[in-house]
Design brief:
Blueprint lengths: L2 H12 L3 E7 L5 E6 L7 H17 L6 E4 L4 H14 L5 E10 L5 E5 L7 E9 L3 H11 L6 E10 L10 H9 L3 E6 H8 L3 E2 L2 E2 L3 H14 L8
Parallel strand pairs: 3-4, 3-6, 6-7, 7-8
Antiparallel strand pairs: 1-2, 4-5, 9-10
Helix pairs in contact: 1-2, 2-3
Length: 228
């Protein structure tokens, strides 16, 4: 785990974005961990998230002209990432979509910088589960103009879930969309990093919880996300 990823994990734990225990997901499935990026709800928290996304783009040498975040969760991610990039000397646009196209004034689907021909666009989102929101975002941006390049997709956490086949959702997205999908953190790496480690006086992932996470990945993870 690189330094910017370890710092990002500390941020997520501090704001309880990642929690460990027994949780029932929206699908009804039981899970030994839960991810809720909505916990990053202060100015300092979202600023730190933007810095982490910008650092991850720099780490992977991803160039971009526009940061796009799908509404609604992606809106603060796009703004925070563009702001952090500007502080590092890369002033780029940001954009997000309206849930309903505006039929008056300037009209249109996009708020902020309009995706235009020749732009290199980075899409930011919170987690990878089914990948549906990422697929929709890529289609929306590509449909805005010709010759738009999706330079990459950055997300906070890859749950390493199985996709429509035995492969992980992330692997399927990269294959289907032809773009790099760059999670800051993968849940398996998070579990390994935290195993037996004290965080503010508490061990969040002991041997029992670590085993439960591996068992969950073995049952629900993709073939490239459930390695032991």
């Amino acid at each position: 785990m690189h330094a910017h990823q370890a710092a990002f994990l500390d941020l997520l734990l501090r704001f309880e974005v990642i929690r460990f225990g027994e949780f029932t997901l929206k699908s009804g499935r039981r899970s030994p961990y839960f991810v809720n990026a909505g916990q990053l709800r202060t100015g300092a928290a979202i600023d730190a998230l933007g810095q982490a996304y910008a650092a991850h783009l720099a780490h992977h040498h991803v160039a971009c002209d526009l940061v796009f975040g799908p509404s609604y969760k992606g809106v603060p991610l796009a703004v925070a990432t563009a702001s952090a990039l500007a502080r590092s000397g890369r002033d780029v646009g940001y954009s997000f979509d309206r849930k309903e196209a505006k039929d008056h004034g300037e009209g249109g689907v996009f708020v902020g910088t309009q995706p235009a021909a020749g732009m290199r666009v980075v899409i930011v989102d919170d987690v990878i589960t089914s990948g549906q929101s990422i697929r929709e975002a890529v289609a929306l941006v590509r449909g805005a103009a010709s010759d738009i390049s999706i330079a990459g997709v950055v997300v906070a956490v890859d749950r390493q879930e199985r996709g429509r086949t035995q492969a992980s959702t992330r692997a399927e997205l990269q294959d289907q969309l032809g773009v790099p999908v760059l999670p800051l953190l993968e849940i398996r790496a998070v579990a390994d990093h935290l195993l037996g480690r004290e965080v503010r006086g508490h061990v969040l992932v002991d041997a029992t919880r670590h085993a439960a996470i591996l068992a969950h990945l073995a049952e629900h993870g993709g073939t490239d996300g459930a390695r032991t």
